[in-house]
């Protein structure tokens, strides 16, 4: 049974009148009659009793109603799925991010996509370092990444989401903690607690730039795996750290004072959404359009 036959059968079964059924189907009565006759021949059963006065369903016809409806519904779902895929409303998309610096943006994007494209599957992967997510976008194991990077490979396109400010985190009992701003040179003798950094780590490159501008090399550095550990150790008085305004606002740190850096080179660090420009498809474009409307 073909979908067109099933649809015609259902309408005739509801109307029990060839004229009204043909009108609903927007076709003539003779083509409808031939369509039903063809269906009956293919099934080897009479579906309707026809007289000059009325049309009635046979037992076989009554039995066929639900299967015919299921066939039409399945066809409509298939058509809708294809249309939704073409328009980017159905599919799976993956996004990587690292640390507390992008938590708010990831959550906001996920909420907005859930409203705009509820049938889109949005998979989020957290990694320790932003560079990890960037590499996965390049090798196409991730569709998107959000992070702070010093440089972006030429294969990628990017959307600016927000700006992050590099701040100094000090123990509250530190002599400089009574101020709201600080010159880096005043911390030349302090031990430092840092996150691991690579050549593309925006925060660690900023730290090297600020200490170079201040004319000193940090005398002791302790490397820890994440911002939560950084704030814990700073709060315990084990050193100072260069961190981010997003971290200061998202991680509880009652024993830590955050200070702005008195250095004109300490410009805002851009948080960006990146993707491969040669991997665009309707699903990815839905995410980009949503992010642009949300953050652009």
Automatic annotation (TrEMBL):
Coiled coil regions, renumbered to chain: none
HTH lysR-type domain span: 1-58
Transcription regulation among keywords: yes
GO MF term list: DNA binding; DNA-binding transcription factor activity
GO (cellular component) term, any one: protein-DNA complex
Pfam families per record: HTH_1 (PF00126), LysR_substrate (PF03466)
UniProt entry keywords in alphabetical sequence: DNA-binding, Transcription, Transcription regulation
Family affiliation: Belongs to the LysR transcriptional regulatory family.
Protein name (database record): DNA-binding transcriptional LysR family regulator
